[in-house]
Amino acid sequence: MTDLALELVSVTAGYGDNPIVREFSARLYAGTITTLIGGNGAGKSTLLRAIFGTNRHFSGQIVFKGETIEQLPPWERLKRGVGFVPQGRCNFPAMTVEENMKMGCYTLPAGRHVAAIERVANSFPMLRTKWRTDAGNLSGGEQQILEMAMVLLVEPTLLLLDEPSLGLSPKMQGDVFVTVQQVARTGVTVLVVEQNVRGALLISDRALVMEQGRLFMEGPAAEVRTDPRIRQAYLGGNIKQTAA
Amino acid sequence: MKLAAALVAALLFAALPLLTTSNYIMGVGVSALIFTVAAAALNLIYGYTGLLSFAQLGFWGIGGYATALTVVTFGGTFWWGLVWAALINAAVALVVGYPTLRTNRHAFVIVTLTFALLATLIARDWVDLTRGALGIPNLPPPVAFGYEFGTTGRFYWIAWGFSVAMLTFLYALCTSRIGRTLVAIKQNEPLVRAQGISPMPYKLASFALSAAITGAAGGVYSFHLGIIDPLFLDFYYMQTFLIIVIIGGAGSFWGVVVSGIALSALPEVLRFSADFRMIIYGLILVVAMFVMPSGVAGWLRERRLARLRKTLR
Amino acid sequence: MSAVLEVTGLRKAYAGVHALDGVSFAVEAGSITGLIGPNGSGKSTAIDCISGFQRLDSGKVVLAGADITGRVAHHIARAGLMRTFQTVRVYERLSLSDNLAIAHQQFDAATWVDEFLRTRRYRKAVEASEARARRLVELIGLQRYYEAEVGILSYGQKKLVALAAALMPHPKVVVLDEPVAGVNPSRIREIEEALRQLNQAGETFLIVEHNVEFITNLCHQVVVLDQGLKLAEGTAAEIHSDSRVLEAYLGTTPEIAEAEMRTSA
Amino acid sequence: MTVDAVYLLQLTLNGITLGLLYALIAVGLSLIFGVMEIINFAHGELLMLGAFAMAFALPVMGLLYWPAMAVAILATMLAGLAIYEVLLAPLKPDEFERSILITLGLSIIIIHAMQYIFTATPRLVDTQYGFEGIEIGSIRITWTRVIGAGAALVAFGGLYAVLRYTQFGRAMRAIAQNREAALMVGIRPRVVARNAVVLAAGLCGLAGAAISPIQLVTPYMGQFLIFKAFALVIIGGLGNIPGAIVAAVALGLVENWIGGFFEIVWQEAAVFVIMIAVVFLRPDGLFKRGGMRVG
C-alpha cells in the first residue's frame, strides 16, 4: 500500500463560475479500493468528474503516474489509464451489447479489439448471454456491469465509479460489489462513490469523507466504518459543528 | 425619459413630409416605419416569448395578398383589407401554432420555416387566386372620407399612423403583466407552470398577435409598392426583420425600434447592387451571432449588470 | 388538526422499475412535515407526482378536500399547492419584485381587461401583491435587492427568492424540494428561522431534504421513504432513534459472500 | 376520372427517383441533428454547390458522368469541412436557434455570391447519356434518373454499413445516444461532429450531382428542396435516419401522384399538410425516435 496511484493536490473544480470541490487533497494507493463518502451535495460526483476531466478545473494539480493531467481532455486521460463510469445509465441504449463493447474499444488500436473484448467478456460471462440484446433492454444491474466492462476494455489502472449500485436490488448490489472487488484484485486502483456506504466500506481499504466540497476525514475503511461521525455525516447537517 | 424621447421621435417622423418633397426619402421613411413594426412583431414572439418564428414571412405575404385581393378581387376597401389580413393571419397562426407548440421548440422553428416557404410557393402557383408570377399591379390608393392617399407624401401618413398605433399597442403589451409573463415563459417554463400559469394560451396568443400585426404591416406595404407579386415573399424580408431584431437585441422593445429605423435606412444609403447588399446582410447576421448574440441592447445590459454586480458585492 | 394534503397509495414506475410502490402520508394543516430518505428512495418522484410534473400510475392526491389526482401542474398550483425545485428555479433576467409579482398574478381577480383599463380591481390586486412581496422580502432579508435582477444574486439567495415566490399567493401547502442543498451552513440557520416564523404565521410546509439535522430541528412530523416504500413515520425524535432509518441511509450490508458464490458458480 | 395504369406507373417511378434524392438531403440533416442537435440551414446550398460543380466538371471531363460526380461530391465535402471548422465547431449542443441563424446567414451569402458570379440564368446540364433512357412499353425513364436513383440507393447502403459496422460511423450513433457515455469511452465529440458534417455534405453533393441533369441548375435550387427536407426531418422524427428515408420516398410518391392529377399548388401544399398532421397526431414524429437507430 505504498505505491501512489493518484495524488490530488489542492484541487478546486466545478461548473461554470461555481467551484464545488474546494482545495481537495488526497492520495490513492495502487491496487486499493477507496470509498468516497459524504452527504448529498458534498461534491463527490464533481470530484470524480474533475479527475476524469469532464467539468471545469479551477486550480490545483492532479498527479497520475508522475504526470500532471489536469489540463488534458478526457480522452487523453483515458489513454493514460484513467477510467470513469458516471452515475446513472451511461451506455448506448440503442446498440447491442456487442456494439457497446466495440465502442468501449474506441481508443484502442484496431488490432487489439478482439483480444480485449475476449478478455473482458470472459470475466463477465453474463454479457455473453445477452450479446445481441440492445443495452437499453438489459436490467439495471446488467447495464451497470456492461458499463464497467466497457471501461475495463482499455485496461485502466485507475477506475472511478460513481454510484455503481444505485437503484439496484440488494442481491444485484452484492453482485456489483463483488465485481468491484474482482477488478481491484487484478491490480486496478478503484475510487468509488456509493450510496450504500456500509456495503462500500466492507469491500474498501480506505475511505475519504467529504463535506461541503472539502476533505473532512480519511482513514482505513474499517476505522471509518465504526466512527460515530459517519452517522452524523448522513443524519446530521454540519459535521464540524456537531463534532466540536 | 424613454417615453418622452419616443414622443419627440414620433413627432419628428410625422414632420418628415413637411421637411422634404423628395418621394425617394419619404419612400425610405415608409419602409423604415413598416419594417420596424414587422420587426417589433417578430420581437414579440422571438424576443419575448422565445420562439424563433420564420412564419413571419408567410404572414407578411398573406397579409399583402389578403389586402390586395380584398380591394381588387372582392371589391372591399383598403381598410377592410387590413382587417382581413390581420384576422386571416391570426387564424392561420392558431391552426399552425396549436399542434406545433405542443411538441418542442425545435419543431416550431422548422414548421414555421416550412410554412414560410410554402406561402412563397402558393403565391407563385395558385394562379387562380394570386395571378401567379405576374402578380396584381396597379393597386389603387387608399381612400378615407373622400381623401385619396395618392402620392407617396400622402401615403406616408398612413404608414406613420399605422406604425405609431401598432408600436404603442406592442409597447403597452410588452410592458404589461402579459409581456412579463411571456418573458417568464421564455426563461423558465416549469416555474411558470408551478405558479399556476398555463403557458400554451400565452404562446398561442403572442404568436397570433404577432401574425396579425405582421399581416397588417404587409398589407400597408403592398399598397405602398402599388403591386403585389411572389417577390413580396422574397426571403429578403424575413432576413431584414431578423437582422433588425438581432442587432437591436431580442427582447428589448426600444432596441428593436431604434435598430429598425436605422437598419431600414442604411441599405438605401449604401445603395449596393441587390446581390451585394444581401451578401452584406448575410455577413452581418453571421458576425452578429458570433460577436453580439444578444444585440446592442443586450450588450449594454451586460455592461450595466457587471457594474451593478461590482457595487453590490 | 386536519390533513390539508392527503396522499394515498402513490405508485410510479419507470421502465418496469418501481420508483414509488404505494406510498401514503398526510400533511396536517399548519404543520411542517419532512419527507426524507436516501438517494433514489423516491422523494423527488413523489413530489413531482403530487405537484403534477409527472404522471402517477395510480394512487390518490387530495388537497383540502379536493381531488387533484393526475391534474396538470398549473391546475394544481391554482388549487393551492405551490412548490420549489431542487435545482433552484427563478426568472434570472427579471427583477426580484417581478419574480414575486408573477407568482401572485394568477391568484387575483384582475383580468387583462382590468389591466388595460387600469380598473380599481387591477390597482387593488397590484397593491395586495406588492404588500405581500415587501413583507416576504423583508423576511428573507433581501430588501436592498428588491428592484435588482435576480441573476446577480448568489445561489443561496436565489433559493430564498424561490421560497418567497412560492409563498406569494398564500398557498394551502408549500412543497420545498431540498431548500438547503448547496446552501452555505451559516445561511441554513437563516432559512430554518424564516420557515419557523412563517409556520407560526400559519403556513403549511412539506419539505423534502437530505439534511436530516435540518429536518429534525424543524419538522413536527417526518416521513421516511426507502426504495419507493414508506419506511417510517413519526416525530423527529422517533425517527432519529429508529435504527431502520440509519440502515436505509448507510445501506444494508449486502450478502457479499453469497454473491461471490453466485458469480463463481 | 379513369386512372391510366401506365400513367400511374410512370408517376410512381418518377416519384421514387425524386423521393430518393429528397432522402439524400433529409438524411444529411438528420445525421447532423443526431450528432450535434443543430440544423444546417445552408444544407440546400451544399446541394446547389454540388450541382454547379457537376455542371462545371462535366464539360472538362468530356461529359463523363462518374468522374464529374466524384468531383462534385469531393467539392461539397470540402465545403462542408470549411463550414464545420469556421461556423459550427464553436456551437454547443443546446444552441439550436443560434445554429439556424448562423447557417441562415451563410445560406444568404452563398446564394447571392453564386448569383453575383454566375448570374441567375438557369443552366442545362448535359451528360454522356444525354436524354437517352430505357423504355418499357410506353413508360420511359431517362438514364440520368435511373442512375441518380441507383446512386442514392448505393449511398444509403454505404451509409448503413458505415454506421453499423465501422467505429467511425458507430461513434456518430454513440454521441446521438448518450453524450456522457461517449466521453466515457474516449470519443472526441468535435472530431465525430466534423465527420458527420462532412459525410452529410457528401450526400448532399451526390444529390446535387444526380439532380443536375434532371432539373435546371440555378443558385436558388437548394432553397426549394431544403424546405421539403426540413419537413421530412420532422415527419420522420428528428435525428431518425430510416424515418427520414421512408418519409422522403413516400413524399416523392405522394407529390407525383397529386401532381399528376391535380393542380401544382396541391403538390406543393401536400408536404406541409402532412407535416402539420403528423405534428398534430404524433408529436414525436411518425417513427420512433431515440438516438439515431439504424435498421
Descriptive notes:
- The complex is a heterotetramer of chains A (244), B (313), C (265) and D (295).
- Chain A has 244 residues and is an alpha/beta fold.
- Chain A has a single domain, classed as Rossmann fold (3-Layer(aba) Sandwich), CATH 3.40.50.
- Chain A contains eleven helices and ten strands.
- In chain A, the strands form two sheets. In chain A, strands 6-7-8-3-9-10 form a six-stranded mixed beta sheet, sandwiched between helices. A four-stranded antiparallel beta sheet of chain A has the order 2-1-4-5, with helices on one face.
- The mean pLDDT of chain B is 88.
- Chain B has one domain: ABC transporter involved in vitamin B12 uptake, BtuC (Orthogonal Bundle).
- With 313 residues, chain B is mostly helical.
- With 265 residues, chain C is α/β, with parallel strands linked by helices.
- In chain C, a hairpin with a 2-residue loop joins strand 9 and strand 10.
- The mean pLDDT of chain C is 86.
- At the B-D interface, helix 5, helix 6, helix 12 and helix 14 of B face helix 4, helix 9 and helix 11 of D.
CATH architecture of the largest domain in chain C: 3-Layer(aba) Sandwich
What is the CA-atom radius of gyration of chain D, in angstroms?
19 Å
At the fold tier of CATH, the topology name of chain D is ABC transporter involved in vitamin B12 uptake, BtuC
Number of domains of chain D: 1
The most extensive interface between chains reads: B-D, 40 and 41 residues
- The low-confidence parts of chain D are none
Topology as H/E string of chain C? EEEHEEHEHHHHEHEHEEHHH
Instruction: Report the total helices of chain D.
Output: 11
Architecture of chain D, according to CATH?
Answer: Orthogonal Bundle
Helix content of chain C: 40-55%
Give the terminus-to-terminus CA distance of chain C.
58 Å
Summarize model confidence as the mean pLDDT of chain C: 86
Describe this protein with a few key phrases.
heterotetramer, B: 313 residues, mainly alpha, ABC transporter involved in vitamin B12 uptake, BtuC, two-stranded antiparallel sheet, 15 helices, 2 strands, D: 295 residues, 11 helices, globular
Report a brief summary of the structure.
The complex is a heterotetramer of chains A (244), B (313), C (265) and D (295). Chain A is an alpha/beta fold and 244 residues long.
Fold topology:
The complex is a heterotetramer of chains A (244), B (313), C (265) and D (295).
Chain A: E1 4-15, E2 18-29, E3 33-37, H1 44-52, E4 56-64, E5 67-68, H2 74-80, E6 82-85, H3 97-104, H4 113-123, H5 125-129, H6 140-152, E7 158-162, H7 170-185, E8 189-193, H8 197-203, E9 206-211, E10 214-220, H9 221-226, H10 228-235, H11 239-243
Parallel strand pairs in A: 3-8, 3-9, 6-7, 7-8
Antiparallel strand pairs in A: 1-2, 1-4, 4-5, 9-10
Chain C: E1 3-14, E2 17-28, E3 32-36, H1 43-50, E4 58-63, E5 66-67, H2 73-79, E6 81-83, H3 96-105, H4 112-117, H5 120-140, H6 155-167, E7 173-177, H7 185-200, E8 205-208, H8 212-218, E9 221-226, E10 229-234, H9 236-240, H10 243-250, H11 256-264
Helix pairs in contact in C: 3-5, 3-6, 5-6
Chain D: H1 5-36, H2 43-60, H3 65-88, H4 96-118, E1 133-136, E2 139-142, H5 143-165, H6 167-177, H7 179-184, H8 189-211, H9 221-236, H10 241-261, H11 264-281
Antiparallel strand pairs in D: 1-2
Helix pairs in contact in D: 1-5, 1-6, 1-8, 1-9, 1-10, 2-3, 2-8, 2-9, 3-8, 5-6, 5-8, 6-8, 9-10, 9-11, 10-11
